[in-house]
Amino acid sequence: MTDKKSVRRQIDITDEQLLTLINQRLQLAQTIGEIKNREDLATLDPKREQEVLDRLKRFNTGPLTEEGLRNIFREIISAARQVQRPLSVAFLGPEATFTHLAAIKKFGRSTFFKPLPTISEVFMAVEKSNHHLGVIPIENSTEGVVNETLDQFVETKLQICGEIYLEISHDLISRSGQINDIEIIYTHPHAHGQCRKWLQGHLPQIPVLEVSSTGLAAQKAAHNPNSAAIASGFAASLYELRVVESRIEDHRENATHFFIIGPYAPGATGADKTSIIFAVADTPGALYNMLRPLAERGINMTRIVSRPMKTVAWRYLFFVDLDGHLQESALQECLHEMEEMSAFFKILGSFPKAEAIEKVS
Ligand SMILES: C=C(O[C@@H]1C=C(C(=O)O)C=C[C@H]1O)C(=O)O
C-alpha cells in the first residue's frame, strides 16, 4: 500500500538528488567556461546544445514528453551558460511581446534580456557588441514578411545564427478577469485582425484601441481596471493580469518565424539552413538561371521572398533560405555558381534548423 506521505518523501529525496546533479553539471560547465576563456571562444555553442538535446531525446523513456524534456533542459542549459559568462540578448520590445517570449523559449530564463524599441536598434546594439545576440521577427504565417528586418539584412555585417518558430495565440486579459468590467480593449493591429470574429461575437460594442505592441497593450490594461488587452498568456503573467478568455484567435494555425542575429556563424549540425540575398540582371530567364544550380544539385529552397531594391526602381532583391550548411561542398559549389551569375550576392549565414514550433504556454 503506497500512502501519499511516503511517496512525497520519495519525491523529496529525488529532488535532492536532482539538485545535486544539476549543481554538478553547472560546475562542469564552469570548467568548460575556463577552457573557452583560455581559447577565446564564445560561451554559446548552438551545435553542442543541439547535440545535448538530440542525445537526451534518444535516451528518454518517458513519461516525460519531448516538449517537457526540451523545456526542462532549456533552463538547465540556460543556467549552465550563465555560470560561464552571462549571455546578453537584445530583442524587439517592449517586454511581454511575442519576440520576448520567443527569446525566452530559445535561451531560457537565466539569460539577460534587453528590450529595444525598433528592429534597427536591435541590429545596431549587436553590431556595436552591446549585446551578444539579437532576436527579431522575420515572418508571420498570416501577416507575411517583416520588411524592416529584410531591409536591415542588406547592410548588416551580422549573421543569422539561429531561428525560432513560435505559435501565436491571443488571450483576452485584464486586472479582474471579469468580462463585464471591460470598457476598452488595447491591442496590436495584427492581433486585432486575428481576433475580429471573436470580438464581433462576444464584445461587439467595446471599442478596440490599436497600440504598437501586445506588450504595451498588456501594460495599459495593468494600469486601467476597466480595460483589457489582447496579448499572450505570458504577458498576463508578467503584468499580473487574469485571463478573461484564452485563445480567442479566429484561426489556430498562426506562427511567427524569428531570426537570431550575431557576430558569428555556428558550425554544421547536420540539420541546418543557409540564408542568402541576391539580385539578378534585368534579362529574360535571369531568375530561372539563378535557381537552376539548386535544382540540379537537389538543394531544397524553404523560402523565397522579393523586396524592391531601394536604389533602382522596379528592380528586386531576393531573400532565399536553403536546406544545408555552408560547410557542405555541394552547397558551397552551388552558391559559388549563383554568385557568378548575380548582380548582387550576400550570404547571411548558416544556422541549425528549428526543431519544432514552440508552444506559447
Ligand atoms: C557547457 C557548455 O556551454 C554552453 C552550455 C551547454 C550545456 O549546458 O550543455 C552547451 C553548449 C554551450 O552553449 C559547453 O560548451 O559545453
From TrEMBL:
Q: Which residues form a coiled coil?
A: none
SUPFAM superfamilies xref list: ACT-like (SSF55021), Chorismate mutase II (SSF48600), Periplasmic binding protein-like II (SSF53850)
- Pathway membership, UniProt: Metabolic intermediate biosynthesis; prephenate biosynthesis; prephenate from chorismate: step 1/1; Amino-acid biosynthesis; L-phenylalanine biosynthesis; phenylpyruvate from prephenate: step 1/1
Enzyme Commission code = 4.2.1.51, 5.4.99.5
Keyword set, alphabetical order: Amino-acid biosynthesis, Aromatic amino acid biosynthesis, Cytoplasm, Isomerase, Lyase, Multifunctional enzyme, Phenylalanine biosynthesis
Q: Which GO terms describe its molecular function?
A: chorismate mutase activity; prephenate dehydratase activity
Decide whether keyword Cytoplasm is in the record.
yes
Which InterPro entries does the UniProt record give?
Answer: ACT-like_dom_sf (IPR045865), ACT_dom (IPR002912), Chor_mutase/pphenate_deHydtase (IPR008242), Chorismate_II_sf (IPR036263), CM_dom_sf (IPR036979), CM_II_prokaryot (IPR002701), Preph_deHydtase (IPR001086)
Q: Which residues cross the membrane?
A: none
Q: What is its main location?
A: cytoplasm
Return the annotated site residues (Essential for prephenate dehydratase activity).
T256
**Is the keyword Magnesium in the record?**
no
What's in the GO CC field? cytoplasm
Domain ACT per the UniProt entry, residue ranges: 275-352
Residue span(s) of domain Prephenate dehydratase: 88-263
Q: Which residues form the Chorismate mutase domain?
A: 1-88
Biological process terms from the Gene Ontology for this record are:
chorismate metabolic process; L-phenylalanine biosynthetic process
* Swiss-Prot/TrEMBL catalytic activity: prephenate + H(+) = 3-phenylpyruvate + CO2 + H2O; chorismate = prephenate
List, alphabetically, the Pfam families matched.
ACT (PF01842), CM_2 (PF01817), PDT (PF00800)
Q: Which NCBIfam families match?
A: PRK11898.1
Q: What does this protein do?
A: Catalyzes the Claisen rearrangement of chorismate to prephenate and the decarboxylation/dehydration of prephenate to phenylpyruvate.
**PANTHER family per record:** PREPHENATE DEHYDRATASE P PROTEIN, PREPHENATE DEHYDRATASE-RELATED
Question: What protein is this chain from?
Answer: Bifunctional chorismate mutase/prephenate dehydratase
Per the UniProt record, the lineage of the source organism begins with:
Bacteria, Pseudomonadati, Thermodesulfobacteriota, Desulfobaccia, Desulfobaccales
